[in-house]
Each structure stands twice: as structure tokens, then as C-alpha cells.
UniProtKB/TrEMBL annotation:
Family: Belongs to the AHA1 family.
Gene3D superfamilies named in the record: 3.30.530.20, Activator of Hsp90 ATPase Aha1, N-terminal domain (3.15.10.20)
GO MF terms, alphabetically ordered: ATPase activator activity; protein-folding chaperone binding
One GO CC term on file: cytosol
PANTHER family: ACTIVATOR OF 90 KDA HEAT SHOCK PROTEIN ATPASE HOMOLOG 1 (PTHR13009:SF7), HEAT SHOCK PROTEIN 90 HSP90 CO-CHAPERONE AHA-1 (PTHR13009)
Start and end residues of each Activator of Hsp90 ATPase AHSA1-like N-terminal domain: 2-100
GO BP: protein folding
Protein name, entry field: Activator of Hsp90 ATPase AHSA1-like N-terminal domain-containing protein
Record organism: Balaenoptera physalus
SMART domains noted in UniProt: Aha1_N
């Protein structure tokens, strides 16, 4: 099934790219629609759901007549990282949010859902009667658990890392899977398509 994603993509990319900001002692670079002092181009020639985020090509250049200053280098080094992160979110949400509700036909005419699971046939199946209360028995077993502590080193600022782990769309891009996150103390999270879930006991940025 084909759908025109042009309008949806324009709005999604605009929202993601307008959030890109990088700064150092030379100044600040951001993707914006007005109020700029210097202008430049960002070109992404192969943005497609068929490419992984690492395969996407991103080039930054000043507008003709503008100087190739240190801010351009800042945008090429740090800005491109955030732009690549934004394209990863776009590709992920294109495959999840935009394709919700699409049915894909198969060779035998049966429909499958967007994640490729075949529709269940209902002909000839009879519902099993629910067990009576007198037949109910406790089920399940006790599973021993333990506490695990994991430490990782990320080559970025604490503020940027905090933003990645507390922004639902960035979490989806980081894990390459559907995710739900309430970024507040006591908020719930469900990561990796629901395989990891829990509650945020505290939010600290150090």
C-alpha cells in the first residue's frame, strides 16, 4: 500500500530540525526560520526509510557570499550529529506513526498488519468456555530477581545526554524501537516495544 508522506514528512522534519542548536565559545548555530546573522545550507540527498541513519549523507555549507567561518565548522561537527539524530527519529516515526492503520495484502488475499503479522482466520473456530470459579487455580511461578547496576560512558555533555533520555522521540531513535516515556519523577516508561518497563524514581542532570 502506498501513501503520500510529503505533507506529514514536511511537518515532522520541520519540528525535528528546528530543535537543533549547537554552541561553543565562537557562538551559536541553530536551524531557524528567521532572525539569522549568517546563512548556510544543509543538504541531505539520500534521506529514505530504506537507509539506516548511519547511511544518511549530511553536508553543511555557507550560502554563496557568506564567509566560511568557525561557526560553519561547529555546525559541520556538532550540528550534523544532532541533524543525524533528528533524521533517525524521522525514519523511525515514519515506520511507526505514519504507517499505523495500513493493511498490506498478501499473495493469498489475506491482510496483514503494518508489522507484518497475518490476520487471524475466524472460520470454524469455537470459543472455549470460561472456567468456572470452582475450577480456578492459581497459576504462575515465583521468579527470583536481583538488582543490576549498569555504568556507561557517553562522549557528549550531561545536558545533551539528559535530553536524549528524557525526550520520547529521541529515546525511540536511540533504541531503534517503539518507546513510551513520561519524563517526570514517578513517570512510567516502556522501552524496546514494551520489553523493558519501569518507573523513574528521580531525574538528575550532573
Amino acid at each position: 500500500t502506498e501513501r503520500d508522506a510529503s505533507n506529514w514528512s514536511t511537518d515532522k522534519l520541520k519540528t525535528l530540525f528546528l530543535a537543533v542548536r549547537v554552541q561553543d565559545e565562537e557562538g551559536k548555530c541553530e536551524v531557524t526560520e528567521s532572525g539569522v546573522q549568517y546563512k548556510g545550507h544543509v543538504e541531505i540527498p539520500n534521506l529514505s526509510e530504506e537507509n539506516t541513519v548511519d547511511e544518511v549523507e549530511i553536508s553543511v555549507s555557507p550560502v554563496k557570499g557568506e564567509p566560511d567561518m568557525n561557526l560553519v565548522a561547529l555546525m559541520r561537527e556538532e550540528g550534523v550529529k544532532l541533524l543525524r539524530e533528528a533524521t533517525g527519529i524521522y525514519i523511525s516515526t515514519l515506520k511507526t506513526e505514519f504507517t499505523q492503520g495500513l493493511s498490506l495484502p498478501t499473495m493469498n488475499g489475506e491482510a496483514v498488519d503494518p508489522v507484518g503479522q497475518p490476520a487471524l482466520k475466524t472460520e470454524g473456530r469455537k470459543a472455549k468456555p470460561a472456567p468456572s470459579k470452582t475450577q480456578a487455580r492459581p497459576v504462575g511461578v515465583k521468579i527470583p530477581t536481583c538488582k543490576n547496576t549498569l555504568r556507561e560512558t557517553f562522549l557528549t555533555s550531561p545536558e545533551e545526554l539528559h535530553r536524549v533520555f528524557t525526550t520520547q522521540e529521541l529515546v525511540r531513535a536511540f533504541t531503534h524501537a517503539p518507546a513510551m516515556l513520561e519524563a517526570d519523577k514517578g513517570g512510567k516508561f516502556h522501552l524496546v516495544d514494551g520489553n523493558v518497563s519501569g518507573e523513574l524514581t528521580d531525574l538528575l542532570c550532573r
